[in-house]
């Protein structure tokens, strides 16, 4: 799962990022409210862990603006403010869950798993399918009418993004953020290269799916045989 952690306590960020990466999650970290909002509204994450008390813009305002922008990414508020009013205010603002510091990491993992079951999106080693292909995200194995093959990590991540939102135009910046990370120094041409690789992999397994270019916007994985 790709997680955005917006938290100004750098020690907590270091601890959580280390623990979450051990659980095979990918983490991007931001210590500032305004910068965090810029990353949040890219809609490039599966989950946001959001502190309430942040420099430049408080967490509730970050959440409010992201929801107003149409971003529905699940959010767990993590904060030292634990009164009933604070919890109600956070949940009413659009948070999906609320944790009061200090908390046990095992509880945070349980909350993440609970949100995953609720959405049905984040099960580990998930088998994803669309049209005439299936993809085992744990084995990184792509299967189509003509057989199976293993994808590289980057190819697999890119395909997984498309399979989670088939028939949807995905903007170039969203793809770059989800596959390479929001802060990665990567040329946009790298995305075009991996799109080329992925088209070849689909062709090799005999798939009829099309990875279409939407000029000036991004790409879409679609089934041309379904109207």
Descriptive overview:
The protein has 227 residues and is of the alpha/beta class. The protein folds into two domains: 2-119, Response regulator (Rossmann fold), CATH 3.40.50.2300; 127-222, Winged helix-like DNA-binding domain superfamily/Winged helix DNA-binding domain (Arc Repressor Mutant, subunit A), CATH 1.10.10.10. It has eight helices and twelve strands. The protein has a five-stranded parallel beta sheet, with helices on both faces. A four-stranded antiparallel beta sheet has the order 6-7-8-9, with helices on one face. Helix 2 runs parallel beside helix 3 (59-68). The relative contact order is 0.11. The model has no long low-confidence stretch (mean pLDDT 87).
Short summary:
The protein is α/β, with parallel strands linked by helices and 227 residues long. It contains eight helices and twelve strands. The protein folds into two domains: 2-119, Rossmann fold; 127-222, Winged helix-like DNA-binding domain superfamily/Winged helix DNA-binding domain (Arc Repressor Mutant, subunit A).
């Amino acid at each position: 799962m790709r997680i955005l952690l917006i938290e100004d306590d750098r020690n907590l960020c270091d601890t959580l990022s280390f623990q979450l990466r051990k659980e095979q999650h990918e983490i991007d970290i931001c210590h500032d409210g305004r910068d965090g909002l810029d990353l949040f509204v890219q809609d490039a994450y599966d989950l946001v862990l959001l502190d309430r008390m942040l420099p430049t813009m408080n967490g509730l305002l970050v959440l409010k603006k992201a929801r107003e922008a149409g971003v529905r990414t699940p959010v767990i508020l993590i904060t030292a403010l634990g009164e009933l009013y604070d919890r109600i205010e956070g949940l009413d603002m659009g948070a999906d869950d609320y944790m009061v510091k200090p908390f046990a990491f095992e509880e945070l993992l349980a909350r993440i798993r609970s949100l995953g079951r609720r959405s049905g999106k984040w099960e580990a080693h998930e088998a994803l399918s669309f049209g005439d292909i299936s993809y085992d995200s744990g084995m990184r194995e792509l299967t189509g009418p003509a057989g199976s093959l293993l994808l590289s990590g980057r190819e697999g991540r890119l395909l997984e993004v498309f399979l989670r939102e088939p028939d949807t135009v995905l903007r170039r910046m969203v793809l770059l953020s989800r596959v390479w990370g929001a802060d990665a120094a990567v040329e946009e041409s790298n995305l075009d290269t991996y799109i080329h690789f992925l088209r070849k992999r689909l062709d090799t397994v005999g798939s009829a799916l099309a990875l279409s270019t939407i000029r000036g916007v991004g790409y879409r994985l679609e089934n041309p045989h379904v109207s």
